[in-house]
Amino acid sequence: MAAIIEVEDLRKTYPGGVEAVRGIGFRVEEGEVFGFLGPNGAGKSTTIMMLTTLLRPTAGTLRVAGLDPIAHPARVRAEIGYVSQDLAVDDSLTGRENLRLQGAFYHLAPAEARRRSDELLDLVGLSDRADHRVETYSGGMRKRLDIACGLMHRPRLLFLDEPTLGLDIQTRRQIWAYVGRMKEEFGMTLFLTTHYMEEADALCDRVAIIDRGEVRAIGRPAELKAGIGGDVVSLRLPEVNGASRAPSILQGLEPVRTVQAVDGILQAVVDDGDGALPLIVQALSAQGITPASIAVKKPSLDDVYLAHTGRELREESGSREESWQARVRLRRIRR
Ligand SMILES: Nc1ncnc2c1ncn2[C@@H]1O[C@H](COP(=O)(O)OP(=O)(O)OP(=O)(O)O)[C@@H](O)[C@H]1O
Predict the structure, then answer these.
(1) Which residue intervals define the domain ABC transporter in the entry (predicted)?
(2) For residues 196 and 194, what is the distance between their CA atoms, to the nearest angstrom?
(3) What pLDDT, on a 0 to 100 scale, did the predictor assign at position 333?
C-alpha cells in the first residue's frame, strides 16, 4: 500500500514557547481509517492544521498525497477535505444551498454540483430536509451536513476533527455508518480525531495515541489491546482503614503485571483473570479489605490509553462536550 500521509519528526512551537507537537512521526496508508486519540491540548488540532496547510510547522517533514503542504498548498487542498470542530454550515441557507455553495467554491459546474449534492444528501440521510433552513436542524443534522460539505469536491483524503463530539449515541452510530460508506464507496482515506474510545475501536483500522505533543503508541486497535495482555481485573474498594495499601498488596502477587488506580477503582492487568481472582481476593481479605465489587474483562482501548498515558480519557469528555455545546449556543446567539 502507498502512504497518503508521511510525517517525520514534526514539531510545532507556538509563539510564546508552547511546544504543542514535539517530534511526531507516522504514516497513513491510502484507503485506511486512521484515528488520532488524545486528551485536550494533546496537539491533535495543531497536527491536523499542519497537515491541511493551515499552519506552518516549526520543523520536520510531511507529505500529504505525495506533496509537501508548505511548497504546494493549493495542490494539497485540492486533494483533501477538512471538517473542523466548528460547524462551517450557514444557518440561514438550506441544506441543499449549503452544498451548492460549497460546489461553487470548488468551481464545480452547476449540473455536477446538483448531482453531487443530491447524492450526498442521500448519503447522510438529509434528502427529506434538504430544502429546510439549517437553523431548523438538530445538532446531529448540522454535523451530517457539515461532513457532506467536506465531501463535495470528492477528496482523496478527508480530515474529521472530533466528528461526533456532543452528539447522542444514536447519531454517533449514524455518523460511523457514513464513515464506513465513504471508505467503501469512494475508497477514501479518513483521518479522524476522537476521544470516544468505542468510536475509535469501531471505526479505525489503526490508531495513534497522542499525549503532550508526542505519539505514545500506534497500531491496530486489536494489536494495541493484545499488547496490554491478558485480562483486566477492576476492584472497587470500600473506604476502610488499610484500603490505601491495596495497590502494593496486588503488586506483590505473582499473576499481577500492573496496577493503576483511577477514580477509586483499582485496575490490575493479569495474565488469566479467572485464575488470578481468588488469589487477589484472598490477599486483600488477609489484610482485612473486602472489595465492594469486582469485574474481570478483556482490555479495551480505554485500558490501552490508560497504560500509555497514566490517565483516563473519559474523565475529560464531559467538559469537552460542554464547551462544544456552548460554542453551538454562541453561534446561534450571535446570528
Ligand atoms: N494559537 C496558539 N497559540 C499558542 N498556543 C496554542 C495555540 N493553539 C494551541 N495552542 C496550545 O497548543 C497545545 C495543543 O493544542 P491543540 O489544540 O493542538 O490540542 P488538541 O489535542 O487538538 O486539543 P482539543 O481537543 O482541546 O482541541 C495546547 O497546549 C494549546 O493550548
Answers:
(1) 5-237
(2) 5
(3) 47
User: So what's the pLDDT on residue 100?
Assistant: 95
Q: Quote the pTM value.
A: 0.82
How confident is the model over 4-17, as pLDDT tens digits? 999 999 999 999 99
Cα(49) to ligand 1 centroid in Å equals 11
Give the residue from 154, 48, 52 showing the smallest Cα distance to 99: 154
Could you tell me if 151 and 130 are in contact, meaning their C-beta atoms sit under 8 angstroms apart?
A: no
Q: Is the CB of 40 under 6 A from ligand 1?
A: yes
Contact (Cβ atoms closer than 8 angstroms) between residue 239 and residue 292: no
Phi, psi of 307 (to 5 degrees): -65, -35
Cα 46 to ligand 1 centre (Å): 6
The more confident residue out of 80 and 175 is: 80
Task: Return the best residue to mutate from 10, 40, 212 for the ligand 1 pocket (most ligand atoms within 8 A of CB).
Answer: 40
The grid coordinates listed for 300 are 479495551
Q: Which domains, ranges and CATH numbers included, belong to the chain? A: 3-224 (3.40.50.300), 230-298 (3.30.70.100)
